[in-house]
Amino acid sequence: NPVHVYSVQWDILALHEFVQRLKLEATLNVHDGCVNTICWNDTGEYILSGSDDTFLVISSPYNKKVKQSIRSGHRTNIFSAKFMPNTNGKEIVSCSGDGIIFYTHTEKSPEYNRQCQFTCHYGTAYEIMTVPNDPYTFLSCGEDGTVRWFDLRTKTSCTKEDCKDDILINCRRAATSISISPLVPYYLAVGCSDSSVRIYDRRMLGTRATGNYTGRGTTGMCVRFVPTHLSNKSCRVTSLCYSEDGQEVLVSYSSDYIYLFDPKDDQARELKGPSEERREELRQPPVKRLRLRGDWSDTGPRARPESERERDGEQSPNVSLMQRMSDMLSRWFEEASEAQSSRGTRPQTRPRGQSNSNNNNHRSEAANSSPAKPASVPDSSIPSSSSSSSSSTTTSRTSTAEPVLSLHYSSEGTTTTSRVHVFASSSSSSTGFYRRSAAARIQELFRRRKERREMEESETQNIRRPSVKMVYKGHRNSRTMIKESCFWGNNFVMSGSDCGHIFIWDRHTAEHLMLLEADNHVVNCLQPHPYDPILASSGIDYDIKIWSPLEASPSFNRALAHEVITRNELMLEETRNTITVPASFMLRMLASLNHIRSDRLEGDRSEGSGQENDDEQ
């Protein structure tokens, strides 16, 4: 009796011993890049995976063989891929870092499949979500702040420039994760970069293609969840997951924890958040460290917090060249910031999208994700610093140039990109003018933000606001944009981590039940088998790992788990104050420092020459 077998299998999951007997059963070496997405087919026979190598692979976890390897047509990292329901695993939808979505039929030619692309998103497309038992429609979300709904019965491609035909929701900030209620599929949860999870009733929504698009981000919204301490902060949602019965939602935040909430709850409406002044103070932590892109030394089972590295000394064999370069950058940043503070002035900031009116030569460089890794923390945008303001070249030599490091966090528009500006300023007049103009722009920015927030609050007065039901801690989620957390059966919650482990908690008590070392750097993806007690995982390593309860007895090492959790908490706090910058940043910083030293040397020579002339007279 299949029903009886199914019941027995999930009764096994009710026992803590089950997860404590998990052991690595198989490794599928099917990719040549980081594996950013994995998905079981309807029957659980095959796994679909997508990677930085831009291939889609269908493989069997049982015989470890590849059924089909597909050159997807994607030109950048594949972030999400799903089998379309009820298509016998023959139809796939996938999205990538450049925002392009491909519809792939496994029995059609590569030439045909390459034509079936949707270029509607601008910026990264983060996730694809299919609708249960619907083989025709799917949804996507992306950095452009939109959730789009596509119907393959009406079109299998769209390359229209600046297309808005299929926008279902415009969140007006990056939409980073979506999930559909399995039992009531017209409920759609959307995670945004402003720390909010919004649940919409799709029956009240439409697109321009269907003729009933409203264009308002609050239409159809019935629930809005934000943990109180994240109110008005920009913590990205990296994962959303409905429970099997649709009664609870699990949400994972970058640089924070995992939260469970009940969409029917409305208790948070009565809770008071921080004051407006406190909100601005809590908006973002101060930056203390810079990390070079490609430096993964703070990830994996052997990563250590900075305090331990300082204790062991820089000659520790665990300290990589990239890590030492990152440490050097952080010291430069700290010294320059202290020098700026010692002069009694505040670091200068520049609003997103604005340029210095006195410096037309400053060009902002958009730092794209490293092709060798999946998307890391929100990237930094660094302007050229090899030259200062045009006016500074004619200023008096008595104005000593100092490196000015300015950090601006932006949550406007659709990004939460951190921007670091490095430039040398030697003109007091130009600096004063810049400060006045920057202050005016910032005031206007905050005025508009306040107006928009007030409008949204007035439009969402009747929307339920759930409180936190449970918090799951111990893991570390900060280095990648994809960090899945999910339910396993009715009793367990799981998550990947930057420490390279899989964490498993008791769903009802948040007790740590199991820790599995599963990657040399970061575990990003976790997908339980639809029927059997089998788990698939993937991450920075170029493989897929299969886990089953094969241990003869429970093997949970609580002492090791406590040690890993303690380190993760320390390193999570460190990474809250850290941003990732491209290698070109170091070159530009060196150029800036060299420019400053040259100015000083020239000034010293001029002063010396002037003194000699005075003596001669």
UniProtKB/TrEMBL annotation:
Residues 268-283, 292-314 have a biased composition (Basic and acidic residues). Residues 268-320, 334-404 are annotated as: Disordered. GO terms for biological process: positive regulation of transcription by RNA polymerase II. WD repeats lie at residues 516-548. Residues 380-400 have a biased composition (Low complexity). Residues 338-371 have a biased composition (Polar residues). Gene3D superfamilies: YVTN repeat-like/Quinoprotein amine dehydrogenase. Keywords: Repeat, WD repeat. It comes from the Eukaryota. PROSITE patterns: IQ, WD_REPEATS_2. This is Ddb1 and cul4 associated factor 6. It comes from Takifugu rubripes (Japanese pufferfish).
